[in-house]
Amino acid sequence: MSLLTREVADTWIARWDVQQEGYIPDREERFTAMVDAVEAAAGRPDPLVLDLGCGPGSLAGRILDRVPGATVVAVDTDPLLLSLGRVVHAGRDGLTFTELDLREPGWAARLRLPRQADAAVSTTALHWISGEQLRVTYRELATVLRPGGLFLNGDNFSVDDSAPGLARLDTELREREGARRFAAGDRPEDWRQWWDAIAEEPAFTELHALRGESVEHHGSESAHLSTHVAALRDAGFGEIGTLWQRGDNRLLAALLPA
């Protein structure tokens, strides 16, 4: 871990951004919509914001760029991505990284927040959590958001099989868009290739080993929009709907009752 310098971390986060944009061409536009919504809903210049499944802090950093008075508590279970974020954002006021498993009951209390959060955000992260575990995540979240607090989840949400015709069209549209974007064959590095490459970087040898012990990914276990809506309703959120959308790239929003 001593080899992890700011220069090395910057290089790998730049590669992370490129591979993420390969999946999400409207990634920056979605980030902008998310921060707009946080600013509008918080109603104060110093909101307390949770970033769930924060990775290396891509969204957290953008929130503080736009809302410098904010406090962002960034939560993830991946020691390698958290270390990247801590190095790149070292010394940045208003940002703390916390290693917690969002699938475990009690994670919200372990944050020891100074007050209830005004908003929580997540981007391209919670689809890794199974439907039943997602209910735990959202129930925990509801305990630390203030009344009227906002949750935003930006991800690629698909239509479920209860509407088979729409589900087929949803899949077809995604496949056709991808075929057009990569018609010339210039497909960027993907998620798996990025992880395979960073595993070969000497600066991450110890962190990669730690990651193997603590991180479990079994595919997109809760990719359906309906899974998240049902779990949010179960957790006590009231109004739930899509604030922004480009194809299956959606910004799902939920408000606690005021």
Automatic annotation (TrEMBL):
The keyword Transmembrane helix does not apply. Keywords: Methyltransferase, Transferase. The keyword Cell membrane does not apply. Residues 49-149 form the Methyltransferase domain. This is Class I SAM-dependent methyltransferase. GO terms for biological process: methylation. It comes from the Bacteria. GO terms for molecular function: methyltransferase activity. It comes from Actinomadura fibrosa.
